[in-house]
Amino acid sequence: MLHSVTNTHNQNKSQRSLTTMLLATSLIAIMSLKSASASELLEVPAMEDQNNQIGEVFDNLMVEMFDTEQSYAQDVEAKFTLEQSVKVYKTRLDYYFDLFDRFLEGGRATVFSPNAMKCSQRIRATALDFNSTFMNYKASKGKNLSYDRYVFNFTSVVSNSGAESVGECYTTAFNLYSYVMMRKSQFKDITLIMTAFLQNLIGNILNFNTIYQNIVNANNAAKLSDVYFYIGRLTYIIIYFDPIDYAPLQTANDLKTMSAVEFMLKQSTNINNQASVGVISKISDVALSFLNSSIGVVSPNSTICLSNLTALNTTITTLNTQYKMKVYDKMGPTLRTITKSLDPITRSCYYSMFEYGKVVWTYLLTMTDINKLSYNFIHNLGRIYDATTDLVDNFRYGDPKVRKYWRRIGGDIGLVINQLAYLPTNYDPYRPQNTTKPKVLSVHIVIN
After folding, report:
1. From start to end of 20-102, where are the E strands?
2. Is the pLDDT of residue 414 over 70?
3. Rounded distance between C-alpha atoms, residue 234 and residue 200, angstroms
4. HSE (side-chain half, CA atoms, 13 Å) at 213
5. Secondary structure string (H, E, C) spanning 246-265
6. What's the pTM value of the predicted model, to 2 decimals?
7. DSSP 8-state assignment for residue 269
8. Are 230 and 106 in contact (CB under 8 A)?
9. Taking a C-beta distance cutoff of 8 angstroms, is the pair 9, 72 a contact?
10. CB 79 within 8 A of CB 139
11. Tens digit of pLDDT for each residue in 108-117?
């Protein structure tokens, strides 16, 4: 049905154009006869009758063209009505996001940022996930569920759909910023911007009036979706304007414009890829390596927690390096990775807290017992020696400018403490210790 309406409109349009050309040619010929000399009009009907005939032809032409345009408008309205479908919204969030998408569509958001619509879709998915999780939380009240389950449900949303939203919408914001900077570079000063802005407003007066009428009509017809579409189109017309061309003889190279991303990449300077290690990075590398080699080796969940924290620390350092190097277009995926790590870190570090206390208490008992301490020193002397010599070699020959240097310091010291202080399982064969390993309940971060 929609195809037939379109084909009919195309045929009517062709017929209307042909009829208009023929009638216009006839009118020109008749008017030329009107200006001819009296001797040339001997065989032409009286002037008054001729004028009446011209008037009738012109009136008929106007009526025909008006009827055709009205018929075309009705066809378009019928086509638009057929395209619309009654949509049932499960939540008000879907309704609001549909209106927002119509605003972006009317405002031609993809002109300013190509992935603007995808960002909106990501945010919608995240909002719906949060809403569903919150509704489940309210429904489960009174069922005596553990609080950690509620927390993990929300962190799971953040690490999944939330991470995708962060990465996508950062890229959208960067594209928009790049576009604004690129457009700004086309104007020499604020005076030219205001002049072009005012010229754009004056040149679109008729468009403003048309859009205003469309908004009023859509509002009266209770078509709120169309209202937001036309508001977006009005916004686009207001904010989108080109610089005034004062030099029509400019060369083709002068008129050539680059894309927004190309502009931003040209603005960034070439900086050495090797970033210096900051004080915070040094401290965190030593601390995480120390905990991983001292407690993490005997605590499965602690090992995973520290591994996740190490991965997060590395990613944050990468983000800081990208910012310093002004590689802003690469920061979106890095932010996505950081957000994605929230749930694995929360789960692993939560479970490891219960193991940390047990391990630290065991260390204290061993360090206060000279027999156990001597037993560990004798039986683990080889590993203690290797860790000590590695630590000395690192101090003598290592490069403090790289992160590996600081990680080796924390790792070697933690290993020495572990070999000295942890209670061996075969210390007293007549009183065997509980060798049951803690259950691993957490997961590693998968960086992608």
Report:
1. none
2. yes
3. 12
4. 5
5. CCCCCCHHHHCCCCHHHHHH
6. 0.60
7. -
8. yes
9. yes
10. no
11. 999 999 999 9
